[in-house]
Amino acid sequence: MPIQVRERVRRHRRSEFDLRRTALGFALVAVLLCGAGLAFRTALESAERHPVVAGVSVAALVAAAVAVLRRRRSRRAAAEAASAALEAVYEVVDTALEEMPDPDPGPESVRSPEPASWQDMDPYDFEEAVAALCRRDGCADAEVVGGAGDLGADVVATTPDGRRLVVQCKRYSSGNRVGSQELQRFGGTCYAVHEAGAAVVVTTSTFTEPALEYAEQCGIVCVDLDGLTAWSGAGAPPPWQAVHPVGG
Model confidence over 9-21: pLDDT tens digits? Predict the structure, then answer.
């Protein structure tokens, strides 16, 4: 009796080509994932810089998705998906707007007082205001030193070009003019005692003619109320830059 012999089913082993193809497939998937991650990161950075554009782009994608959903699903499902997507868009845009840095305001400047308030200040506040103007215009170390025994120096500083600035402040009413005797007292100390490289007298009033003449002879710059108003409003250069006294 003949014996039946089962035919062996030949099982094909995976060839090297199949392994290579699988490896290439995994590599391609990895490349696609990396590319998708990079694209997502770039999209996020672009959304932070241009949140409105990003919102419009996402809205366009949402509209396309809604169109596809209407074909494949019910209208109710499409509406719910669109609503959820739009809420996500609004949240992304709002977050991006909140995290956007404020516009650069630029370097801080010292605010000068309003011209109408000069004569309303007390003498000490007036000296502080003049020192603030000096700091605004480049004298970073300007400080008030006026008081008993100041010998005519109310504000001292160093000008941007390296000179020692000595300022005397006269907070006077409009009818009280600065006279020559006051200029002479200041002229006797500003150079000899304070070693001024630039001497300035600032007043909320005006100067008498003899005072202006003496100041011109001694190289003292005189700034009256009009000159002070122009200086504080940046309509005139700092007084220590003047070659000749500024009179009323």
Answer: 455 454 444 556 6
Whether residues 126 and 92 fall in one domain: no
Task: Read off the DSSP letter of residue 143.
Answer: E
Whichever domain contains 158, its CATH number is: 3.40.1350.10
Which parts of the chain register pLDDT below 50?
A: 9, 12, 14-17, 93, 97, 102-110, 243-248
The residue range of the domain holding 163 is 115-241
| 223 in the same domain as 126 | yes
Could you give the angle at the alpha carbon of 239 between the alpha carbons of 198 and 128, nearest 5°? 90
Is there a single domain that holds both residue 93 and residue 125?
A: no
Convert the pLDDT of each residue in 190-221 to its tens digit: 999 999 999 999 999 999 999 999 999 999 99
The phi and psi torsions of 75 (rounded to 5 degrees) equal: -65, -35
Q: Which of 55, 70, 99 is the last residue of a domain?
A: 99
- Structure tokens that stand for 192 in this block: 């000899």
| Number of neighbours of residue 207 by Cβ within 10 angstroms | 26
CB atoms near residue 200 (< 10 Å): 26
- Please tell me the distance from the alpha carbon of residue 37 to that of residue 23, in angstroms, as a whole number: 21
**Looking at the structure, do residues 129 and 222 belong to the same domain, yes or no?**
yes
Which pairs from 56-65 meet CB under 8 Å and 24+ separation? 58/85, 58/88, 58/89, 58/92, 59/86, 59/89, 62/86, 62/89
Q: Has residue 212 been placed in a domain? A: yes
**119 shares its domain with 218:** yes
